[in-house]
Specification:
alpha+beta, four-stranded antiparallel beta sheet, elongated
Length: 287
Amino acid sequence: MTERREPVKIEVPKDESVRLGRVGLIALAGFVIGIVWPRIAGMQLVPSAPAEEDSRPKELASAAPSAKPPPTPKRQAAKAESDQPALGDRVKITETVVTSCDDPVGKETRGCDEVQFDGVARSRLMTLAACPAAAGRTGLLSIGFDLNFEKDSVSRIRSGKSTTFDDATTRKLIACVEKEFDSATLKGIEHGYNEYTVFYKVELLPDKPPEQAASESDGEGVVEASGRATVGWQVALIRKEPREGEVVARILSGTNVIVTGRQGDWYRVKYDAKGNEGWVYRSAIGL
């Protein structure tokens, strides 16, 4: 009698694929940790490529290159003065008079205060030396300004009776002045009335021969002088000595100074309440 055998069955567990997937994830995690962890921990597995040695001295090598710094306001002010032309050689302001002023209701008043218009006017009037109509001419120009503080403007510029130039030349000179005062502002000027009329007498002088100008500029002697002046430049430098002396102060447009001496084109002035003295170039104070 033949024995009957059952066929052999091999059963594969159903969760085997799940186990293989887990093994793959564990391997991937190990790979990531092996690569990333040393970088996070600051470990160096292989030597770095050699860097090119800096042959400069340590002081220069450690200093980072920087762009050229922008000019400071003091540098700009000094440059503005050095660029200023010496216009005072041909222009002399001989007289300033407030001829009228109006109260708030528009009534003309006698006994006006001395409105401080010089800080605005003098530096602009000095540019008359560069006006084409002034070339080769000498004489006196009486010039009036109507100031309107309510509108913050110079409302009118005109010539006065003391003018010695002919009508055509006077009109051209006034046109040059009007161009200079287009951008003038009255802000910051102390005043007691709304409107003023201020007249200046401006003298155009003959050109000095180069030899005479050089002689006056190089003169060693100090001539005693007295009087008052007002800074016309935006910023004027006060020096310890004329020409190349150390800068001891910077004073702004409109500042009043007391003149105590002169050497060539330089004036010795008292420039503050303490009575400190220094030297300033003549054009800076309208002389």
